[in-house]
Design brief:
Helix content of chain B: 25-40%
Largest sheet of chain B: 5 strands, parallel
Structural class of chain A: alpha/beta
Shape of chain A: globular
Shape of chain B: globular
CATH superfamily of the largest domain in chain A: Metal-dependent hydrolases
Oligomer: heterodimer
Radius of gyration of chain B: 19 Å
CATH topology of the largest domain in chain A: TIM Barrel
Number of strands of chain A: 21
Distance between the termini of chain B: 22 Å
Helix content of chain A: 25-40%
CATH architecture of the largest domain in chain B: 3-Layer(aba) Sandwich
Largest sheet of chain A: 8 strands, mixed
Number of domains of chain A: 2
Number of strands of chain B: 9
Number of domains of chain B: 2
Distance between the termini of chain A: 24 Å
Number of helices of chain A: 14
Chain lengths: 426, 323
């Protein structure tokens, strides 16, 4: 048994924000009650004193890359999941762009089994939508679902063929799986390495316009409407895309979206040939960034997702044009989310929702702090100062633009299935 | 007033005073080009690494000749013979060069920012001899020297640049340089090579307008810079050559729309009959060959200043030295 005492419990699913003690027994929440009331029942339990901390349902990351199998020089399931735990995440969804691609049940099973052996957090794989993510034929989606995938996506290799997308969505509607799309019109993308704008013109780097993303979002929403399949837009970065999602939601379509911490924090002005600022979709304009923050606040955005994309140094210590896209994200996510809270852009409750109930809803699940629910809890501070130091990261890679950034508040402890899997030192 | 230059990655971070200083320092080296004996011993015992990761003839020969005339030895790396073809990274290649202890590295690379990247990773003066579509500082300096010699000053000129501005590092460096002297710019070419963001180059308040009609763009021009049509840097053939010639070739008739004393510059290599008519290229307003000669002077000045700065004890460094 584990008793989390004296914390301020935030539970977006019920809207409650109150001092509560939580008793975990086995892999479940046994009881939630006002401070002190569980002491008798918790005799012999391990005590975690959460005074001054926020206690929330376990955080979920809908979008990450663990690189195993095939990319173990950059990350493994073991190192990636340890970084996730250190970032306060209790469940993460790795994208299928491994080598081989996770497009069949045997790859899915190998990931699930490896995770069961080494991962401190829950690993809910996302399966490829098409074989090899080549955009030609449907992957073995039903078989992967039996082994544990929670969604399908050809992340990083957008589905170019609208007819195939429709077939995938029809098929996934019947399987009750969301389709997650990395929205990008590849003809407009055409070799770009950053967002088109003043900065790309100044630096002489090839830029892509925001329409590269929003064109594909418009297509996806309309194809989705033909099928009524749940559509989730990955790492949305442009105001125009957000407006499409907003109007789809207003029409009652099952469309959701996520935004990454780097897209709501940085802009294309931050790109200065430093490859740690190179990711896809690229950092957007200030206007787009501000629109994303408004979308996080008003409910248009459903989830904050990290798009944790580790790359070994050799893939990043090269010319900007030649560097791999992507940055690590697990360990800086809560700190960056709290920056929005401290700046008064979103409430603390809303931030927690974007990491818990929001992503759970995308997957058709629930996340609550309630009796008999899974014993996954994220505990974080809102005021303890700390500095992110990539040399101490649990990830195998260090490609973060937030190295050296000072935060106010961050992960304190991560509890999965009733066990503390991460506890901040000091 | 003297300045020191730890790196020469681009014109953008330089001040007008620093540019004037560089041009003034080039003057004695201009003289040397007229001497029967052109070789100095100024940099004897020093080594200049020339690392050209992108094919280049004139810029490479110009830097090599500049180094020779200063008495420096050279290491030569050219893309076609380099180990990059064997899969070595840029960083490993330049670290290998660095391990042979040159005093300065001059580099040309097809990727924008490549010189910044190398400068951040080596403790060695780096001269950017052209990085992708970003900057080509020595070209802008030699253009400025040429203009200043002919016009007496760089202040307040009307500068028209013709061609593929979007993909031109020469255009960017020229805009960065001449805008610091209050020049006004008219950029002219096919619309897809003229994104509106070009108007934001240069310090705040710089007058930059875009025009697609050459007849309007040449009105009142003091300086006409004709760019090469860089087909190798385009991702797809965006325009038929004949279309370009029809609309944008600098012909004698069009040049008459500019001021009578307007100067014509071209960074080379020049394709007669494409972006420029032979009569203009060979005409009295053309500065093309002076540009080439001035290129030697500017590059000798850069090599001299940067290598001697690196030797001198640290004092007042140019503010952007560590960029």
């Amino acid at each position: 048994m584990l008793l989390i005492k004296n914390g301020r419990v935030l539970d977006p699913a019920s809207g409650s924000d109150a001092p509560r003690d939580i008793l975990l027994d086995g892999d479940r929440i046994a009881a939630v009650a006002p401070a002190g009331q569980l002491d008798a029942r918790a005799k012999g339990a391990e005590i975690f004193d959460a005074a001054k901390f926020i206690v929330a349902p376990g955080f979920i990351d809908l979008h990450c890359h663990l690189r195993e199998p095939g990319g173990e020089a950059s990350e493994t399931i073991e190192t990636g999941t340890r970084a996730a735990a250190a970032g306060g995440f209790t469940a993460i969804c790795p994208m299928p762009n491994t080598r081989p691609v996770n497009d069949n049940a045997s790859v899915t099973r190998s990931i699930v089994e490896r995770a069961a052996a080494v991962s401190p957090v829950r690993v809910w794989p996302i399966g490829a939508a098409s074989i090899g993510s080549k955009g030609e034929a449907l992957a073995e989606i039903a078989a992967m679902k039996e082994v544990g995938i929670v969604a399908v996506s050809d992340d990083g290799r957008p589905i170019a063929n609208a007819k195939l997308l429709r077939q995938i969505m029809d098929y996934c509607r019947a399987l009750d799986l969301p389709v997650i799309d990395h929205c990008e019109d590849s003809s407009l993308f055409a070799g770009a390495v950053m967002r088109e704008g003043k900065q790309s013109v100044r630096l002489g780097l090839r830029g892509m316009p925001a329409a590269t993303e929003s064109l594909a979002v418009a297509r996806d929403v309309q194809v989705g409407e033909l099928t009524n399949c749940r559509l989730h837009i990955a790492h949305l970065s442009a105001r125009a895309s957000l407006e499409l999602v907003r109007s789809a939601k207003a029409k009652g379509l099952p469309v959701t979206c996520e935004v990454t911490p780097h897209h709501f924090t940085l802009t294309d002005e931050d790109v200065q040939y430093d490859t740690r600022f190179k990711m896809n979709p690229p950092l957007a304009s200030r206007e787009d960034r501000d629109a994303l923050i408004a979308g996080l606040a008003d409910g248009t955005v459903d989830a904050i997702a990290t798009d944790h994309a580790p790359h070994e140094a050799a893939l990043k210590e090269v010319e900007f044009d030649r560097a791999a896209f992507g940055i690590t994200g697990f360990e800086s996510a809560i700190g960056l989310g709290l920056e929005l809270v401290h700046a008064g852009k979103i409430s603390l409750m809303r931030m927690v929702e974007l990491f818990t109930a929001g992503p759970a809803r995308v997957l058709g699940m629930q996340r609550r702090v309630a009796e008999n629910d899974p014993g996954d809890i994220t505990i974080f501070s809102t005021d303890v100062p700390w500095t992110f130091d990539v040399s101490k990261t649990a990830s195998k890679s260090r490609n973060s633009p937030f190295d050296g950034r000072s935060f106010r508040g961050g992960p304190v402890a991560t509890i999965v299935t009733g066990k503390i899997v991460y506890r901040r030192e000091g | 007033m003297s300045y020191r230059f730890g790196q020469m990655l681009g014109i953008e971070p330089l001040s007008a005073d620093e540019i004037t200083y560089l041009l003034d320092q080039s003057k004695p080296f201009q003289e040397i080009q007229r001497h029967p004996l052109k070789k100095l011993a100024t940099l004897r015992g020093k080594t200049v690494a020339l690392a050209f990761f992108e094919p280049s003839t004139r810029t490479r020969i110009s830097f090599a000749t500049a180094a020779s005339r200063l008495g420096a030895d050279q290491m030569n790396l050219q893309a076609e013979s380099s180990s990059l073809k064997k899969g070595e990274s840029l960083l490993d290649t330049v670290r290998t060069l660095d391990a042979m202890k040159p005093d300065c590295i001059v580099m040309r690379h097809a990727c924008s920012g490549a010189a910044d990247f190398v400068a951040r990773n080596l403790d060695l003066p780096v001269i950017n001899a052209g990085d992708g579509t970003h900057e080509h500082p020595s070209q802008a300096l030699l253009d400025a020297l040429t203009i200043r010699d002919r016009r007496g000053s760089l202040e307040g000129l009307n500068v028209t640049i013709l061609g593929d501005i979007l993909h031109s590092r020469v255009a960017r460096s020229n805009i960065h340089l001449l805008s610091k002297f209050g020049c006004r710019f008219t950029l002219c070419g096919p619309a897809m090579w003229l994104p509106k963001e070009l108007e934001c180059l240069g310090p705040a308040g710089t007058s930059i307008c875009r025009m697609t009609r050459i007849s309007e763009a040449l009105q009142d021009a003091d300086i006409v810079i004709t760019l090469r049509v860089q087909q190798e840097r385009l991702h797809e053939p965006a325009l038929a050559i004949d279309e370009y010639v029809l609309q944008y070739q600098l012909t004698p008739a069009r040049l008459r729309l500019a001021r009578p004393d307007a100067l014509v510059l071209h960074p080379g290599p020049m394709v007669r009959g494409l972006e420029i008519d032979s009569a203009v290229a060979d005409g009295p307003q053309s500065c093309v060959l002076e540009q080439v000669t001035n290129g030697l002077a500017v590059r000798m000045a850069l090599l001299f200043l940067m290598i001697s700065s690196a030797d001198a004890p640290p004092e007042k460094e140019s503010s952007h030295a560590a960029d």
